[in-house]
Amino acid sequence: MRIRATVAAVTGALALSAFVAPAAHAAGSTTLDVTFSNMKVNGGKAVVVPATGSVKFSVTYTVTHAATLKSSDFSTIPVIYRGSSIESSQYGVAPDDLGTCTDTSTTVESCKATLSASRADLVNSIAGAWQAGGVAFDKDDNPTFGNGLGKVLVQRLSKLTVNATPEPVKKGKTITVTGSLTRANWDAGKYSGYAGQKVKLQFRKKGSSTYTTLKTITTSSTGTLKTTTKATVDGYFRYSFAGTTTTPAVSATGDFVDVR
Q: Which structural domains are found in the chain, ordered by start?
């Protein structure tokens, strides 16, 4: 059987059609009476990929099959893909190994798999909304597809910094708060400034656990932030970004200012 080679062929953000088209149209191919449901990718959270390296995440799903089929008659994998279907998608992520399944009845299996999304296989333009799906293979590796099993966000990792000066400062004096919002640039393999984004300047009084928003400013063309505020009491200043479809929310670690 060539299933493991087939799975490896679609690992990463690759042209899935290059692997599925020949098998889908193979002479004598049949459609398995297999359906996918309850697919949960990364515990329901977005898949966030850094500027270098890769990120692993789990997928759990349920497979329902005809009573005439045995577990040994087919294998399955989960797939996340960008586009309307696995068959037509140019980008997708599949596991290195077949899904691990446990029979919960004569016709139902509970399955799981581990996938890995690598920055090397991604481009900036495909960040955002993807789909989850599954593929069942018969003993001849002919695929049966389960498309549109839920939306998945594949995002570019974000970072946010803050620096409040001067420290210490006299009460009532002006504080300048600078920072930078960057996100993974998959095309270049580094972090680049995220321009034109609304970011909140927040303050947490010493001894409190709650941040209060002071104002909202917009990042520059290079992702930098700069604003001023008055010093009133000891506490922590931070910037906080709500996130977008392509980029996750992030908050800077608070910078403490001693007010005297």
A: 3-155 (2.60.40), 158-257 (2.60.40.730)
Q: Which residues contact 217 (CB under 8 A, 6 or more apart)?
A: 198, 199, 201, 225, 226, 227
Strand bridging mode 198-205 / 212-218: antiparallel
End-to-end CA distance of the chain: 74
Q: Are 19 and 9 in contact (CB under 8 A)?
A: yes
Indicate the range of 28-37, 124-133, 156-165, 195-204 predicted with least confidence: 28-37
| CA torsion, ordered 84, 85, 91, 96, to nearest 10 deg | 150
Instruction: Quote the CA–CA distance of 92 and 170 in Å, as a whole number.
Output: 56
Q: Answer yes or no: are the C-beta atoms of 145 and 36 closer than 8 Å.
A: no
The answer to whether 159 and 247 are in contact (CB under 8 A) is no
Angle at 66 between CA 60 and CA 70, to 5 degrees: 75
Residue type for position 6: T
Asked whether residue 130 carries a pLDDT value surpassing 70, the answer given is yes
* DSSP code, position 24: H
The Cα–Cα gap between 126 and 133 comes to 17
Res. 8: pLDDT tops 80: no
